[in-house]
Amino acid sequence: MKSKEPSLRRVLSRRDLIVYGLVILTPTAPYPVFGTVQQISGGHATLSYLVAMVAMLFTAASYARMAAAFPVAGSTYCFVQRGWNEHLGFLAGWAMLLDYFLIPLLSIVYAALTAARLLPTVPYAVWLVLFSLAITLVNVRGIKATARANTVLMVVLSTSAVLFAVLAIRHVVASGGSLWSPVAIFHEQTFTLRSLMMGAGISALSYIGFDAVTTLAEESHNPESDVAFATVLTCVLQAAICAVTVYLATLVWPDYKAFPQVETAILDIGSRIGGPWMFGWITMALLVAGLASAMTGQAGASRLLLGMGRDGALSRWLFGHVDEASAAPQRAIWFMGALSLVGSMLAGFQMIVELLNFGAFCGFTLVNLSVIVHYYFRGGRRGGSDFWHYFLFPLLGAVVCVYLWLSLSSAAQMAGFAWLGAGLVYLAVLTRGFRLAPKRLEL
Questions:
Q1: pTM, full prediction
Q2: I need a surface site. Which of 46, 111, 167, 297 has the fewest CB within 10 A?
């Protein structure tokens, strides 16, 4: 008799899911991009983050609703496939593969760049190898090991966010300033809608990754309720953290045109509020944040590969296998570790950022539309408040995502559509010229 194939274990609580989501987003997410957002938006970084929050909340609600309907690994891929169309589901999964590949890659690159500033005598390539290997070794031990590491990292990152807020408040008060300044949110002389939306587009980077919570549905105790709750709450908490951080940073350094270096403006603000030691602390926090995001991003990517591998969309041997001892998709994890290492050696930081946005907005758009198809049209959920929940809100989420999608640079769009084109060709081969439907995930 054939032994039962190893499967994922339901070991994650609602708290684990929330911590996982916040770690992959990181409470220090505004640090790397604050100066850029502040400059591009004409001093409206706080408002940019609030606008991005509204856009992402619509999408987070859509993910929550689809996770309740289909509580399995696969996330975006499964939601669009089961809720709308098999072929579109494959393309959505293919687009989000790009996103999930790039999250750990981007985080490893940023962590290596930060470490290289602390210890410039160590070659940059050595940091890439060390960080890629470290996060992979943690993830292959299983999701509980990842969850424990997430908790430790979350304490470090949360401490940094709280410390920054306390020191910023102390600095503003000691300087005779006010903690309430409407100009720090809206400045009529420098406001334009275009600059605000450009700032919101970059700010959205601080929210991208909340959907990774849904990839852990098969490892959650109560996926129908816990995954939906954790997905939305993660987005709300991240928005609050980001808004407070950038607002206080604006109070400390209101003249966004006077940053010594835009990309590292948060380090200069750290020096202003706490001196050299705070400069060093923030640098270390950025390093920890990069490793935390890389580790959780790799975990989410391996679960997406698992979902696509189990139903034959990708290699079942490589991606559909779950190790019996650790209950983890170890082959998919090792694949992601190798891919991140090679990619970090070849890709530039800016292109990684823009391509990450491309994959995310593409997948977000399709999931929003899948809510409308699955619930509103097929499910007949049209009475009372259903119009708002299952039609208007997801439609608004899709419209905003498309707007942000089209605001990307032409180079990023060309590379992104080339990736989608490759996926379309692969799908044609897989389905014999679209005559067959891709296999569905087993529920």
A1: 0.75
A2: 167
Q: Compute the distance between CA of residue 433 and CA of residue 187 in angstroms, rounded to an integer.
A: 55
Q: What is the pLDDT of residues 115-145, one digit of tens each?
A: 777 788 888 889 888 888 887 887 777 666 6
Per-residue 3-state assignment (H helix, E strand, C coil) for the chain: CCCCCCCCCCCECHHHHHHHHHHHHCCCCHHHHHHHHHHHCCCCHHHHHHHHHHHHHHHHHHHHHHHHHCCCCCCHHHHHHHHCCHHHHHHHHHHHHHHHHHHHHHHHHHHHHHHHHHCCCCCHHHHHHHHHHHHHHHHCCCHHHHHHHHHHHHHHHHHHHHHHHHHHHHHHHHCCCCCCCHHHCCCHHHCCHHHHHHHHHHHHHHCCCHHHHHHHHHHECCHHHHHHHHHHHHHHHHHHHHHHHHHHHHHHCCCHHHCCCHHHHHHHHHHHHHCHHHHHHHHHHHHHHHHHHHHHHHHHHHHHHHHHHHCCCCCHHHHCCCCCCCCCCHHHHHHHHHHHHHHHHHCCHHHHHHHHHHHHHHHHHHHHHHHHHHHHHHCCCCCCCHHHHHHHHHHHHHHHHHHHHHCCCHHHHHHHHHHHHHHHHHHHHHCCCCCCCCCCCCC
Options 2.60.40.10, 3.90.1150.10, 1.10.3810.10, 1.20.1740.10; CATH of 14-430: 1.20.1740.10
pLDDT in the model for residue 7 = 59
Task: List the structure tokens of 443.
Answer: 């529920």
The mean pLDDT value of the chain amounts to 82
Q: What is the residue type of 5? A: E
Strand partners, 220: 12
Q: Each residue of 2-29: pLDDT tens digit?
A: 445 555 677 788 888 888 778 777 788 8
Tens of pLDDT, residue by residue over 403-414, are 878 777 778 888
Residues 6+ apart with CB under 8 A from 423: 90, 91, 94, 95
Is 422 or 114 the better-scoring residue by pLDDT? 422
